Amino acid sequence: MNQQVAMEAPRSIRLNPSDNVAIVVNSGGLPAGTQMGDITLIDHVPQAHKVTLADIPEGGAITRYGEVIGYAIKALPRGSWVNELLLELPTPPELASLPLATKVPADLPALEGYTFEGYRNADGTVGTRNVLGISTSVHCVAGVVDHAVRIIKERLLPKYPNVDDVVGLNHLYGCGVAINAPEAVVPIRTLQNLARNPNFGGEILVVGLGCEKLRPETLMPELPSDLAMRNVLSLQDEGFTGFQAMIDGILAMAEERLEQLNRRTRETVPASELVVGLQCGGSDAFSGVTANPALGYAADLIVRAGGTVMFSEVTEVRDAVHLLTPRCADEETGRAMLREMKWYDDYLAQGRTDRSANPSPGNKKGGLSNIVEKALGSIAKSGSSKISQVLAPGERVTKKGLIFAATPASDFVCGTQQLASGMTLQVFTTGRGTPYGLAAAPVIKVATRTDLAKRWHDLMDFDAGPVATGEATIEEVGQQLFELILDVASGRKKPWSDVWGIHNALAVFNPAPVT
Amino acid sequence: MNQQVAMEAPRSIRLNPSDNVAIVVNSGGLPAGTQMGDITLIDHVPQAHKVTLADIPEGGAITRYGEVIGYAIKALPRGSWVNELLLELPTPPELASLPLATKVPADLPALEGYTFEGYRNADGTVGTRNVLGISTSVHCVAGVVDHAVRIIKERLLPKYPNVDDVVGLNHLYGCGVAINAPEAVVPIRTLQNLARNPNFGGEILVVGLGCEKLRPETLMPELPSDLAMRNVLSLQDEGFTGFQAMIDGILAMAEERLEQLNRRTRETVPASELVVGLQCGGSDAFSGVTANPALGYAADLIVRAGGTVMFSEVTEVRDAVHLLTPRCADEETGRAMLREMKWYDDYLAQGRTDRSANPSPGNKKGGLSNIVEKALGSIAKSGSSKISQVLAPGERVTKKGLIFAATPASDFVCGTQQLASGMTLQVFTTGRGTPYGLAAAPVIKVATRTDLAKRWHDLMDFDAGPVATGEATIEEVGQQLFELILDVASGRKKPWSDVWGIHNALAVFNPAPVT
């Protein structure tokens, strides 16, 4: 195996002509002594890790993506391995002085003729799945809801063939929480908007307990209280004589909604009805080279087709925010971006921590030295469009185009928050690999490297590795990914997480105390 | 129905001779005009709500449990209904000036001869169940673990008849969290100690991803790293070519542990091996009259038998802490109690909230006007023993007797934290009713009122209502509850939550930011 690696031609990628480091592509890394063009490697450089292309003095800037990702803590001669211990973190962009809407990208040419088969809803949104979502106002009911969902799947679902699935929207919020704390607005808004995700077709059923702090009707602020209560089943209602009666009650209300949902059928809609969420997790140095730029290209295609694309993950965007505020459509949007960054700075400071808690050990092993390098790779997902709206965590999207939906970077929290914002399909890029999936919306998992795509052949849905080997361009891979998005949105293709039924829990972002 | 209620003799309970309010017992409440002894009711007083026994002037103290629970915001003549809008909250006990270990209760007479059938572990602990617990270092693996657990239950568990269950210990921690924040110690310690719960028999299996911030070996700090890694399966290990290989890997490691667990058999052990957690949720004004005092009596019996009893729920204890610090075994224990109260005061203040976020609307509907009244009823669970140890959230118990294990009051967070502290059976009192249950330990649910026990006949395990009607004394009901605890600990009786298999998720307390 080692011999085979040694015989492979040494390959590396420099992203920007001004970079003084490149990324080693060869799967076993490159041993010391390797001749890489006119550079002789001084150290063994693992795959996806950085090698210096010039002599860098102590304190000298290390440049990737054309941006400074850190300063050398000792002299690094040409051909050195640059790992996370050798870089000092640059100071983060000062929010107050950032330019807003100064480089708003011109609209790219409109893209006509792309469609998918979606479920059109009464409120104008379009879903990619036809799912009965059973909301909950408090975690206390989770066991009962899980039990009811099992029975609904067994007994009722087969009678309604147009309905794809039944999902219990269990979460840890609702009681034992500081519901009057200022930040409680975040989880409450998230739960309200989760219930309205387009994949649930406007059919709302809330199972509550009765004594919880989060009143079930709160989840439907758009309905008058009496109408809202028609969608609520409270386990403590005096009419329920025991557990079996509760289950029967849930089944009866579920069946009414299944009948409605069963009337929905897929119809051809323009690609402008897509609401795609973007995320990365378990990233490596290839994330910013292969998968994220290809996804950025696909994102541009969706925006050109008139659709909606959300990117998120505040802590991974923070160190590259100076590249985003100029792209905001107008100053107001730019200020909203700053507001979300500042909120998170304060939130981390209050917890006596900072952005250095990111990246993870796996990121570092994958060649990502620090949060600056990770951020630069992460925002490659956003493509090159202007940013048309900035959402606070859990707010529902109201514009088309490229949206920044502020969320934590935690995969499962980000997924939950994007669902609340109205995302109906997610694309998730990963370099290290994760079996991540969501029950409420399909997730396309994109591998940054061909080795991962091959090894996890029954978990990864798409391989962006050919970009690294030069077998395909970013544009070609991005176009393929765009077409896969349309196929999955149409139900023509099923991501692996749905084939196996492996899904993560909802993780509602609650920045307020539990009590 | 109303007529029937009207014909019932009016019944009320005054707990302490110095109280100027009593609790109405009659299930429909009592209408205005009712003659209750020599008092004529001025208002309709709902069941479990307070009625004034004397004229209380504006600003006058309202006294229950012999303690001031609030001050009247207007004059309340004898026979008035006292609801939550009529009380002003007293200031909480000043921590700095509280007496420590000044009234340490003398040991009650030892209780000999009580035993249960438990599973003795190599480390000296005794379990009440024989469960394979599959720990996880990060939520990313949850879908895979859930899938594996389903297959293990189907294919493997039937071959190991002495093993009761297989439980995936999924949680939302592990990555996307500020792992270096000072408060990260709480969730990390909790996960470490969860894996060691006596019901898991010392068999540890950790499924990790590979790139997460919480290294899987961290969960076993007592083992050297190489030994610890023998208990770890990381999905990103290069040996796993895809999902099916991961599942096969988990099954193989699970089977080794099932073989070990299958060798465990129940043996007769003294009741001193009990580690019982106490909790209340969905409380009403009867909680502090029937269920909690009866549970307090049972707690005293366990302590007299040499066993361990934990009570918890900092925010519900805070307003009665001046009654607890004198009961601490020594000043050091008293200071630990103050430390936990202060930590929570600070935590709530940081989130710009305070104790008034508790009680819940259901509590108020159930007659609990404010947190002071709730706290006084809540600590009745602790009985009358001295407090021998105070644990920070997630710390493992190391002493016998009555323990204060600091946790949030949130039912599912408290349950998770008590499991980490080594609790092997929980007793949960409820007035409003909740279907709460835990997968890792049996939960005995105690109704505060007979109506609830009857209505929720297949969810409530025990009825403390006869205390209110005078059909049984606190001592009699407490003794019955103690005997039920021994039956359930022995596996002779199964609580309803285990009959139905309805269990809440683990909710690990994480006071640090997510990232």
UniProtKB/TrEMBL annotation, chains A, B:
<keyword id="KW-0456">Lyase</keyword>
<dbReference type="GO" id="GO:0008867">
    <property type="term" value="F:galactarate dehydratase activity"/>
</dbReference>
<feature type="domain" description="SAF">
    <location>
        <begin position="19"/>
        <end position="88"/>
    </location>
</feature>
<dbReference type="Pfam" id="PF04295">
    <property type="entry name" value="GD_AH_second"/>
</dbReference>
<dbReference type="GO" id="GO:0046392">
    <property type="term" value="P:galactarate catabolic process"/>
</dbReference>
<dbReference type="InterPro" id="IPR007392">
    <property type="entry name" value="GD_AH_second"/>
</dbReference>
<dbReference type="InterPro" id="IPR017654">
    <property type="entry name" value="GarD-like"/>
</dbReference>
<protein>
    <recommendedName>
        <fullName>Galactarate dehydratase</fullName>
        <ecNumber>4.2.1.42</ecNumber>
    </recommendedName>
</protein>
<dbReference type="InterPro" id="IPR044144">
    <property type="entry name" value="SAF_UxaA/GarD"/>
</dbReference>
<dbReference type="GO" id="GO:0019698">
    <property type="term" value="P:D-galacturonate catabolic process"/>
</dbReference>
<dbReference type="InterPro" id="IPR052172">
    <property type="entry name" value="UxaA_altronate/galactarate_dh"/>
</dbReference>
<comment type="similarity">
    <text>Belongs to the UxaA family.</text>
</comment>
<dbReference type="Pfam" id="PF20629">
    <property type="entry name" value="GD_AH_C"/>
</dbReference>
<dbReference type="InterPro" id="IPR048332">
    <property type="entry name" value="GD_AH_C"/>
</dbReference>
<dbReference type="InterPro" id="IPR013974">
    <property type="entry name" value="SAF"/>
</dbReference>
